[in-house]
# Entry
Amino acid sequence: MSLASWFRWNEPPNRISQRSPTEMVVETLMMELSWQMKQAEKQQRERENEYRRMKSGVDYGWLVSYPKHSYDISPGERLQLEDMCAKIHPSYCGPVILRFRQVVAEYEPEAQEVSRLFRSVLQEAAEKIKEEEEAKKLARQWNTKNRTSLSLTTFKSRSRISPFISDIKTISEDVERGTQPNRRVWSMPEFRNTK
# Structure
């Protein structure tokens, strides 16, 4: 852990809470991108060392010193990616990271390809968020429209039925009049014991 990241994670709680959820999402996603790029570089070096070892039969990998992090994205691309990250809702941050890791594990990209994969995962998430928002909006419209039309329908159907002019006798009418409802007689078959 670097000194800068140690200070960031050990900031006083009031300083951390001052950052907005969007800033936290952007920072988290960009840290994930950076980490995946480092991992891709490390794997790329390991593949190159393995290739050299197989080709020459001797391992000279311990002689070679690599920079800790040689590949980095351009400032313009970084700004574009940060802008895309800002459109991700905090509740999608975890699923986006999981999807990104899944894609990286599936493709095993080189360091310079990682940002392209990251961009595609962000676009996929943004489209999914947009679809869900549109579905919620349609559901709200449908519910509002449905409630209005349902109340009109029930009002119209009540006026058509006209329960006060009905010839059908109900128990409630008998109770209101204070009369006893007619008893129902159930017919039962007679069973005779024949012994």
User: Anything to note?
Assistant: Residues 21-144 form one domain. The CA atoms of residues 26 and 85 lie 5 Å apart. The chain has a mean pLDDT of 77.
